Amino acid sequence: MDLNPTSQNPASQASLTAGYGRLVELGTDGVPQAEQLVYWRDTVLKRTEPQIIRNGQPFRARLKRVVLERCELVEHASDAVQALRAPGRARFEGGDDIVIELMRECRSALLDHGGEHRLRSGDLYVVDYGQPMQIIRSRHRSSGIVLSRRRVTELLGEDLSGLAGRHIAPRGLAGILRQHLMTAMDEAAFMTEAERVVATNAAAEMALVILQSTRAGGAAATGEADQFIDGFHVAASRLIQLHCGDPDLTPERVASRLGCSRASLYRVFARRGEGVAEAIWAARIERAWRLLMSPKSGDLLISDVAKLCGFRELPTFTRMFRRRYGTTPREARQGSRRQD
Predict the structure, then answer these.
(1) pLDDT of 90-124, one tens digit each?
(2) Of 315, 312, 304, which is closest to residue 333 (Cα–Cα)?
(3) pLDDT per residue over 14-29, tens digit each?
(4) Cα–Cα distance between 24 and 100 in angstroms, integer?
(5) What does the alpha-carbon distance between residue 211 and residue 218 come to, in Å, rounded to a whole number?
(6) Does some domain include residue 199?
(7) Where does residue 118 rank: exposed (0-12), middle (13-18), buried (19+ CB within 10 A)?
């Protein structure tokens, strides 16, 4: 994710210097064809020297980013391009960041970074912009979480050798991060600034846990749950929210999807005074509340809402809903309609 945090382009400067959580979108549309590559290289990209592969053709590219203090969530798409790590580009602030990048769409890509790596759609890999690199990509789309080098060295120490070009198997926590990167960028335009901050921080926490596990040789990070409790809690909560409509979702299944032991998962939640089973039921009830309050779900029967939220029996749903909100699902829906 070769992005410039200090762009001087007048048209985009206001957006780039806005407060945290702002969604910034840039593109080559409207830029004269002869100036498109120069604009992208000097205004948007600062870590590499991009070169167009197909001479004489327009260079189309677009970028979305959400910037926080020590991390950013980004998505980049462009036509076929070759990018070289340019000498001296690490001197500006942020020029030597560490990125976990997801190749979302790409017919072919070759990354020369700590060795030669063939990349395919769906691959997760690490880019260390403090190290030499070259990448040749066909038309592509990628998303990633950018971490400041300082933040990574605080966790792993000063020696980050071996991270450059490292492929990350998208299983367990990495599988959650992979899905999160896609969903967060696809939904960013529909989020509030505060929600984008939450989404970006969640990606960063997961990425840090994954880097620690990667440094340990790719072993499961279950032994690191105490040290990286925030990352595991974010990942587990995200998984529960996504799958709480499955009536078979249990703490054991959450642990299995995360690639950790049930004991480690329980320990993570216990540190916050929470229970895993309770978190699953709470997610189901909260989803039910949102469905009942939404005009788009007005045609659903109460029993349909219960099934969509992981409840097999309507009496159990009604009892737990009343316990949480002090009213029945039917009364809650009727109250919402009267307010409308």
Answers:
(1) 444 556 899 999 999 998 899 999 899 999 999 99
(2) 304
(3) 333 346 889 988 888 8
(4) 20
(5) 9
(6) no
(7) exposed
Quote the CA–CA distance of 24 and 74 in Å, as a whole number: 9
Distance from C-alpha of 29 to C-alpha of 90, rounded to nearest angstrom? 28
Residue 248 one-letter amino acid: D
The three-state secondary structure class of 297 is: helix
What whole-number distance in Å separates Cα of residue 155 and Cα of residue 286? 35
Residue 221 has pLDDT above 60, yes or no: no
CB 68 within 8 A of CB 205: no
SS3 content of the chain, % helix, strand, coil (to 5): 45, 20, 35
pLDDT mean across residues, the chain:
82
Task: Give per-residue pLDDT as tens, 261-281.
Answer: 788 888 889 988 999 999 999
AA letter at 160:
L
Q: What is the residue range of 76's domain?
A: 10-170
- The Cα–Cα gap between 215 and 226 comes to 17
Residues 2/209/246/304 CA torsion (nearest 10 deg): -60
Instruction: Tell me: pLDDT of 32 over 80.
Output: yes
Beta bridge partners of 127: 99
Q: Could you read off the pLDDT of 197-215 as tens digits, one per residue? A: 989 998 998 899 888 877 6
Q: Tell whether the model's pLDDT for residue 182 goes beyond 90.
A: yes
CA dist., res. 35 & res. 32, Å (int): 5
Looking at the structure, do residues 52 and 147 belong to the same domain, yes or no? Answer: yes
Scan for tokens 């039917």, then name that residue: 330
Confirm whether 246 is domain-assigned: yes
Give the separation between CA 319 and CA 323, rounded to whole angstroms. Answer: 6
Same domain, 55 and 157: yes
Which residue has better confidence, 58 or 73? 73
Q: What are phi and psi of 2, to 5 degrees?
A: -95, 80
Q: What does each C-alpha distance from 306 to 93, 245, 322, 329, 331 come to in angstroms? A: 51, 9, 13, 9, 15
- CATH of residue 286: 1.10.10.60
Which residue from 227, 237, 236 is spatially nearest to 259, judged by alpha carbons? 236
CA dihedral (197, 202, 203, 205) positive or negative = positive
